[in-house]
Known about the structure:
This protein is about 75% helix and about 0% strand. It is mostly helical. The relative contact order is 0.15.
Amino acid sequence: xxxxxxPRRLALAVLFLTRIPVRLDPPPTAAEIAAAGDxxxxxxxxxxxxxxxxxxxxxxxxLPALAAAGxxxxxxxxxxxxxHEDGLADMADGFGGGLTRDRKLEIMRDSRLGTYGGAALVxxxxxxxxxxxxxxxxxxxxxxxxxxGASRWLPSALRIGLPAARRAEEGGGLTAAVAATDALPVSxxxxxxxxxxxxxxxxxxxxxxxxxALGLVWWAMHRLCRRQIQxxxxxxxxxxxxxxxxxxxxxxxxx
Length: 255
């Protein structure tokens, strides 16, 4: 497949990662969405900067840090449609509640929220909100731009060496179609903005922390997905982003 132009890939990333209406002609295919994964870190960084800027503004208005962090994350989920939070919750429900591969996939397809998914979602928001509240408000836009941008490398990179857990004939849909595209070149292109942004904003130490976080999460999620469902689904791609974002925020908070 011919790689779409950079403006089209950016528009595809906005369309996929946010609720911002984007009209594309011709309509995008699954292969094009997969190819646009190299722009996910760019759009993710913009989402993070907006979220951090809102936190900064609310804090400057006198709102307590934790309340400001909660409202900023709520606004972010409204902007993104809680896309990756939904993936994390479904993944936790499936991996935690199913005893067999088929049962895990069945649970992950179910739209209802279970105990494991609810706990994962609460913990994700609690940890991210707490780390954001502890950060200096003026540093929040850069901090979240780095964490949310770099963590969106995972949805492309996790596909390397993993098949789709569901084939098209099993209802794999978009995920099965995405699996047919080559993830390696997309993830290599996505690595550039993922590591360039922390280098420009925070320097080499932060860049090494981000690289370490991404490597650890990729390794852990790759092993987990292979053991649990012998492949990946859209939910595991979204869940990996959430775990990577939390890991990056934790490592950066230690500096």
